[in-house]
Amino acid sequence: MKVILGLGCDRGTPEETIRTAIVDALASVGLSTDDVVAAASIDKKSDEIGLLSVCKQFGWDCTWYAASELAKVDVPNPSEVVMKYVGTPSVGEAAAILRAGSNKEDLIVEKYKYRGHDGKNATVSICKVISPLPLKGEDKGEG
């Protein structure tokens, strides 16, 4: 099965914490990093060194969404706290759903929360791929 990861984290979360959260979330449903097609998150995290490093390590394209785009997605676990800080009630769940071209019924892992030894938090949502956006470098039929 191919999946999309929706990722969220505290500002300055180290690569190790994010990688552990991802591996643990995937393992919780019998999947591995080999099953991941791509990742997605909020555009406010597009400069997060830990997120960028993990995506690069695994060769995943990461799509960054504006809070206004994420806020339109129906998710099972909206959060007022997330809304207060980033302007959308969901980051990981909404980003995974959008990138997978899916809906909340296709979330395999809704919101896996992990707190690293460093005290930083990372969240991972996992969604089945239905009709994902083309990855960078894929033929988009233009010609």
Notes on the structure:
The protein has a five-stranded mixed sheet. It starts with a strand and ends in a 15-residue tail after the last strand. Helix 1 (15-27) crosses helix 2. It has helices at residues 15-27, 49-58, 67-71, 80-86, 92-100; strands spanning 3-9, 36-42, 61-65, 107-115, 121-128. 31% of the residues lie in helices and 25% in strands. Mean pLDDT is 91; it is low at 136-143. It has 143 residues and is α/β, with parallel strands linked by helices. The chain has one domain (3-128): Nucleotidyltransferase, domain 5.
Short description:
This protein is an alpha/beta fold. The protein is built from five helices and five strands; from the N terminus they run βαβαβαααββ.
Distance between the termini: 31 Å
CATH secondary-structure class: Alpha Beta
| Helix count from the secondary structure assignment | 5
User: Tally of extended strands?
Assistant: 5
Proportion of residues in β-strands: 25-35%
The CATH architecture is: 2-Layer Sandwich
Low-confidence runs: 136-143
What profile does the largest beta sheet have?
A: 5 strands, mixed
Strand order of the largest sheet: 3-2-1-5-4
Rg is 14 Å
Average pLDDT works out at: 91
What's the CATH topology name?
A: Nucleotidyltransferase, domain 5
The CATH homologous superfamily corresponds to: CobE/GbiG C-terminal domain
Shape: globular
**Which class best fits the helix and strand makeup?**
alpha/beta
Order of helices and strands: EHEHEHHHEE
Bin the helical content.
25-40%
Count the domains: 1
